[in-house]
Structure formats: structure tokens, C-alpha cells
Specification:
Blueprint lengths: L4 E5 L4 H12 L3 E6 L3 H12 L4 E5 L5 H15 L4 E4 L14 H29 L2 E6 L12 H21 L4 E8 L5 H9 L3 H10 L9 H12 L10 E4 L8
Parallel strand pairs: 1-2, 1-4, 2-3, 4-5, 5-6, 6-7
Helix pairs in contact: 1-8, 3-4, 4-5, 6-7
Bound molecules: nicotinamide-adenine-dinucleotide.
Length: about 250
């Protein structure tokens, strides 16, 4: 990843920050897009401390103007964007007859429109370079229903369909597009769910037992998959959904 420029959306999150760190350790310059937050500033400082070229981009992924500006700022600073990793995401739970319309709209705006906007403004840069890699974070939830998660599942299914569609479109331009489907990851959403669970220990056991490997993924294991898919080692891989799920899917 030496001399590569990577834009990570949702960069301040549990998985996004691990992905950003993985790319930094592999020698890339990283642009970190997330909502303005202390976590974003702290991540920028920490990664700079590792000697990396880092740029924090406080922006709302659902706002076209802000996403376009973030992409332009990255190109002005680093010259191009070789890799886009969409780790941005939002989890809202609720059953179909109870979910508020506003919650549905917010999930779709962040998880689906956000990924679309990041691709929309980054793809022209990659087309100009006649190369690039896009990796979108979907989830095993795209395939498996669970009580109270229909909206999240629908959004992650949409991320997969979007990935397949643009993989077709962009292949002639030397741009590969793939998705990663994690099971439970010991970070981000899982930690948020533990905080509000009535019995966090039971949830933790459930999360571990959902996988053949008997544990959750470390965020660095998702980062490793993102690095692989963006590397030359994956030069013939496009339009793929890679399950990084410790065997979650074969248990079903
Ligand atoms: N944690 C898991 O177990 C798990 C499992 C499968 C898939 N995923 C996927 O991995 C990705 C990262 O999840 P995570 O667990 O790190 O969650 P997280 O909440 O830690 O990270 C998501 C990030 O997206 C950012 N974000 C949300 N709305 C935004 C907006 N409007 N504009 C800009 N940034 C915004 C948040 O600030 C946060 O930093 C998500 O796409 C999620 O669906 C997570």
C-alpha cells in the first residue's frame, strides 16, 4: 500500500478506525471521513503519531455537498484516491409495525445513500487513473433475518446489490468493487448493543456461539480482509461478497 491513498468512511467507528490503522501500517496515506467528533480528531492524532499522512474530513455522509467537498479535499491534499472503503453505517432496531418512519429514513440515508454518494464522487477520480478498488461493508444480516433488525438487514442487502451493480459498470475502467460481510465484530455496533442489553453477558455468549469459530471477530480481522481486497493479491476479484464471519453462515 506504499504511496496508495485510501479514503475510509465511518473512519472513527470501531471497524473503520481499525481499517484506517491497517492501511497506515501498510504504508498508505489515509483520509478519514466521519461526523465531526472527538473520536475523529483523536484518531487523526494517533495515526499521525505512527508517522502516517493523515487527513480528517468531518462530514455528514448523507449530504452530497459535504461528501463532494471531502473527496475534493482529499485529492487536493494527496493527489488522488486509489481505494475507497465504506465502513459508514448506522444500526436502528425496531419491529416493522413499531419502527418510526424517521428511523427507517435515517438508516437508508446513512447505509445506502451514504455509500452511493461516496462512490459517486470518488469514481471519477478512479476513472481518471484507470484503476481503483472500492470495498463496502455489508453484513451477514444481508442474508439472515433477525427479530427487530429488518431495516438494517434491508440496508445491508442494498449495499450488496449496489456493489454488484457498480462492479459491472466499473470493470471496464479497471476499478474493482467488492463487499465484506462480517458476522459479529468485537467493536462498534456490538459494543453499542451490549451497553443497552438487559443481559449483556447473555448477548455476549449468543454473539460468540453464533460463529463456528466460537468467538467474535476482532476489528483487525475485518481490516485484514479490506486490505486483501484492495491489494494486488486480489487483482482478479470483483463483484464478490466476502464473508468474514467465523463460519456464521454455515451454521444456518
Ligand atoms: N460491529 C459489527 O458487529 C458489524 C457486523 C457486520 C457489519 N458491520 C458493518 O461495519 C460497519 C462499521 O460498523 P461499526 O461496528 O464499526 O460501527 P460504528 O458505529 O463504530 O461505526 C460507524 C461509523 O459511521 C459513522 N457515521 C454514522 N452516520 C454518519 C453520517 N451521517 N455521516 C458520517 N459518518 C457517519 C459513525 O459516526 C461511526 O463512526 C457498518 O457499515 C456496519 O454495518 C458491523
Amino acid at each position: 500500500m506504499q504511496n496508495q491513498v485510501v479514503l475510509v468512511t465511518g473512519a472513527a467507528g470501531g471497524i473503520g478506525s481499525s481499517i484506517a490503522e491497517g492501511f497506515v501500517k501498510a504504508g498508505a496515506a489515509v483520509a478519514l471521513l466521519d461526523r465531526p467528533s472527538e473520536a475523529l480528531t483523536e484518531l487523526e492524532t494517533r495515526l499521525r503519531g505512527l508517522g502516517a499522512q493523515v487527513l480528517a474530513l468531518p462530514a455528514d455522509i448523507t449530504n452530497a455537498e459535504e461528501v463532494s467537498k471531502a473527496v475534493n479535499t482529499t485529492v487536493a491534499q494527496f493527489g488522488t484516491i486509489d481505494t475507497l472503503i465504506n465502513s459508514v453505517g448506522l444500526l436502528r432496531q425496531g419491529r416493522v409495525d413499531a419502527m418510526l418512519e424517521a428511523d427507517w429514513d435515517e438508516i437508508m440515508a446513512v447505509n445506502v445513500k451514504g455509500v452511493f454518494l461516496a462512490c459517486k464522487y470518488t469514481v471519477p477520480i478512479m476513472k481518471k487513473a484507470a484503476s481503483g478498488s472500492i470495498v463496502n461493508l455489508s453484513s451477514v444480516s444481508a442474508f439472515v433475518g433477525s427479530d427487530g433488525s429488518f431495516a438494517y438487514s434491508a440496508s445491508k442487502g442494498a449495499v450488496l446489490s449496489l456493489t454488484y451493480g457498480i462492479a459491472q459498470e466499473l470493470a471496464p475502467f479497471g476499478i474493482r468493487v467488492n463487499a465484506i460481510c462480517p458476522g459479529w465484530v468485537d467493536a462498534g455496533f456490538t459494543h453499542q448493543a451490549m451497553k443497552v442489553a438487559s443481559d449483556p453477558n447473555m448477548l455476549l455468549e449468543q454473539a460468540k456461539n453464533a460463529h463456528v469459530l466460537g468467538r467474535m471477530a476482532a476489528p483487525s480481522e475485518i481490516a485484514d480482509a479490506a486490505l486483501f481486497l484492495s491489494s494486488k493479491a486480489a487483482s482478479f476479484i470483483t463483484g464478490t461478497a466476502l464473508n468474514v464471519d467465523g463460519g456464521f453462515m454455515i451454521k444456518r
